[in-house]
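Protein details
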Amino acid sequence: MNTYEVFKDAKWIGNGNKYFSIVRRKFNIEDVKNISLRIIGLGYFECFVNGKRVSDELFQPLNSEYEVRHTSIIDTDNFTSFHAYFNEYDLKEYVKDGINTIAIYFGGGWYQKRGWNSKGYGFDTIRLIYRIFGEDKNGEFEFVSSKKDLIKNGYIKDYMFDHKPYELIDLRSSTIDAYKENFNERGFKNAKEYRFMDTDFRKTTCPPDRVIEVINPSLIFEKDDLKVYDILKNTTGYPELIIDAKKGEKIEVLFSEGINNDNTIDEKYTNSQRFCVISDGNSRTIEPLFIWYGFRYFSVKGNARVNKVKVVHEDIKQTGFIKTDNELINYIFETYRNTQITNWHSATPSDCPHIERRGYTGDGQLTQRACMYTFDTKELYLKWMEDIRDTQDKYTGRISNTAPFVFGSAGGYLGWGSAIVNVPYEYYMKYGDDSILKEYYPNMIKYMNFLDSVSKNGLIEKNNEDYIVLGEWCTPGELVLDYKFVNTCQYINVLERMIEIEKIIGKDEHLALFKEKIEEKRKAVINNFMDSNGNFFNSIQAANAFAVNAGCENENTYSNLVKHYENYKELDTGIFGTKLLPRLLFENIINDDKTHGAKKNHNHCSGIDQYVVLERNH
């Protein structure tokens, strides 16, 4: 939908503030029959009508590829598409006969994107658009955002969204109470009208972020005005503070995943996550507005009491459970469950919820099957598939390493970019909806053409335009595997998957070509990387597993793999090998764990399996 279809004559408005603004508007209705609000506040918004907060949803609207970016750093004019998601609320329970007041806080988030290496990386100045419409005794009515709205800078005075999350709230600002119905609007000015956004507007159908749980933290350290608290698990959210400080005094909260032996905060696990408040001398209850943190421990320095800790993430229903008589297995599943769900915010499956916060296509597709079988994430993955497609280069077919796109996000052509193939495929496997495969098939073909363009002598090669291309990632020790080897093995897996997809949707025009390319790639991998013993990179970091899974093996490759890990007795693998290796070992030695050498029947696949991967928040 375009702007007019959603918002009619509403205008995008703001006042040029880079962090946070508040808009107020009065409207008159009588004997209302129905009344609705459509709204987008970028980056995030919170809305009040007559002093009452509309909805308990947090961190809205959804994170997306909002519009094309033309900055000093990046230009996304080559992207396939752009989407912005609007929220719609029924206001009938909030309004009254006569004069009503709407107040909207907005700012921050990915749209504004002040964070690590942020100059020129965001979208544009924070902005707002809304439309109130319905019917009362006088007939249909409509009130829309325009330059007649009153606006003023908000009470967030400093802000960083990613890498070093930070929010500074100054309670001395008059706008701290601007949500109230009878607030004095002195100092407010008329809003400025901004340009229209050339994007496809969608109504959000995804579960929102909410306060999911409330925790009473334990005090574990106290000295002078410094207190340290423990909530007994890593999570995402923030504390609610009661401020008792004198006017001008500063309260600082520091968040961490670790503590020192004396129970003080271990700063190497804080990732510079901070929340600060400057008191106005009144006793107030306050919490962060447009930011969440990832932590188990937090310290409070200054004259403030901790009322509670609010756990915040996407409100997703758990549908899959594992409970055994083995406490280790139970612990592993619960750790996965908590890690996965705290990495869902604003309909984006992040790599970590508190540093980069990005929808890396590698991390996201690795955990997809486990996530879909543990939680009801159907709408979330439908939306994330659109994010992935949005970032596809409409000329080359390349897929971004993050969806939505964030500049400077490293990744690889296959382990990350293959999300355009694997995510729709896994969705089909879970829900049986082949229309998804048909819808994304043209994008898959474009992506396959891109892979051809970065292939040389049968192997994937780095494009001159890319400063880095990853293969495997995040191994415990130094990475040994050549990115060409890993990418080409994964290329074979994707070719095999494309053959399967074409059979599912009844197409056959590329089957012969895909089979031919598979053989070409297998020969290139064997000729360039296999040694005389049938090993690849001495079988370390699951190199032989990558080869076997791609059909690049001789009679010794698999048995060498088994022997290596029988002797090594621990994992040395990165994010892809860690999922691939156990499956191959389980499938091939479960009934024959002593033969070490019989030729096995290997089921090649993309390595995107249902097995659980554990990861800390970071």
